Each structure stands twice: as C-alpha cells, then as structure tokens.
C-alpha cells in the first residue's frame, strides 16, 4: 500500500514537472514570436490555448510589446484573439494604443478605437504620445483622438500637457492643431514651464514665436476699476 502511494506521488510530481516545462516553453515561444513578428507561430500558440494577454518579464502584455516593437503582424493576431484585453497596460502604464499613436500606425489606431481602446485616463495619454511624434500620420491621429473627445489639456504625472510635448518634439502642424482645438497655452507643469518654454528649450524659434503670440493673446489683463 505504501509502495503504491509512493509511486502515485512520484507520478504526480513527474506530471507536474512536465506541465511546468510545457508552460515555460510556451511562454518562451510566445515572447519569441512577438520579437520576431512570427505571426504563424503566434497563431498556433493562440489556437493551442495560450493567453493572448500574457505578460513578459518587464510587465508588458503581449499586445503592448508587439506594438512597441512594431511587430504588426503578431499584433493583428493578438487583436483578433478571443479574450484579448486591449486596454491592458504595461508596468509603466503604456497601452497598445499609446504605442500605435507615437509610432504613427493610423490603421491600428482606428482599429483599436473601434474596439473601445481607452483614450482618457490618469497620467500619460495617447494624445501625449502622438503630440510628441512627427510621423506622416501624427496630425491625423491626433485629430482622430480629439474627435473621440480626448482631453486636450490632459496632465502627465509632472503636469505636462500634449501641447508642451508638441512644442518640444512635435511638428508645427501638430502645435497649430492643438492650439486651434483649444489647448491652454497658459498652463504650467511642475517645473513651472509653459509650452513656450518647451519650445525655447529645444531652440525651435519658429514655435517660440507661434506659441508666444498665442500666450500673449490669451493673457488676462489686470483688473481695474
């Protein structure tokens, strides 16, 4: 009786070990498929029951990592996978939509928005990300977000706004789009910097003039009797 129990125990341990090895192999294959944009391998893994929301060692869900690495074919497999959670964020708070925005993948942005990707949330937002980029489709993506009610003066953790980032990193068209859409040029972040200061820090004099003109135009005159 004791021998049978002991054998059963050994068998159970061996089975558990095999399962753990299989899971580890699947995890490695999942991450490798993302890195290599191996959509065929990813499709097989998903068909075998792999969780499309699997997180890597750095806390990045599969879809976030795929968009960050621009593994667009794998991203498509993950987006259409049953159970995918497109709003899952990495440990640093980045979503798939944020990476699609900053890298200028307008088709993916449209796809994610149609599936209910979140635009407004505390901290860095998709509008911050696209405002700091200067790709072929950056301005069009920003307009898409604004059309979907993106909060134009969203504050990052240090209270920087999309306009501030556009002033330092984006294009003149991006700055004009945000200004025309009502971005508040008077706002200051935790370092007491305005969008004008951001433009000045990057020595973009053409944007300094544009933003300073907007700043002066919106200054409130001192109250008088």
From TrEMBL:
Name the InterPro entries on file: Ankyrin_rpt, Ankyrin_rpt-contain_sf
Annotated membrane-spanning segments are none
**Signal peptide positions (record):** 1-24
| Pfam families, alphabetized | Ank_2 (PF12796)
Task: Look up keyword Signal and say if it applies.
Answer: yes
Where does each ANK repeat begin and end? 92-120, 122-157, 158-190
Asked if Disulfide bond is a keyword of the record, the answer is no
Keyword line? ANK repeat, Repeat, Signal
Superkingdom assignment: Bacteria
Q: What is this protein called?
A: Ankyrin repeat domain-containing protein
């Amino acid at each position: 009786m004791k021998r049978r129990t002991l054998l059963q125990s050994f068998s159970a341990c061996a089975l558990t070990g095999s399962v753990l090895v299989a899971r580890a192999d699947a995890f490695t294959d999942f991450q490798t498929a993302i890195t290599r944009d191996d959509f065929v391998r990813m499709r097989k893994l998903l068909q075998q029951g792999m969780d499309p929301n699997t997180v890597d060692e750095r806390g990045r869900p599969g879809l976030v990592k795929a968009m960050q690495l621009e593994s667009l074919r794998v991203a498509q497999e993950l987006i259409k996978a049953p159970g995918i959670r497109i709003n899952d964020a990495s440990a640093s708070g980045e979503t798939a939509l944020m990476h699609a925005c900053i890298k200028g993948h307008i088709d993916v942005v449209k796809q994610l928005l149609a599936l209910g990707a979140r635009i407004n949330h505390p901290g860095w937002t998709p509008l911050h990300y696209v405002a700091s980029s200067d790709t072929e489709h950056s301005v069009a993506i920003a307009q898409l977000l604004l059309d979907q009610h993106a909060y134009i003066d969203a504050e990052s953790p240090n209270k920087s706004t999309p306009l501030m980032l556009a002033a330092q990193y984006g294009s003149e068209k991006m700055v004009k789009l945000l200004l025309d859409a009502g971005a508040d040029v008077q706002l200051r972040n935790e370092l007491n910097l305005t969008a004008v200061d951001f433009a000045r820090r990057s020595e973009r004099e053409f944007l300094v003039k544009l933003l300073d003109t907007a700043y002066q135009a919106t200054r409130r005159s001192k109250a008088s009797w």
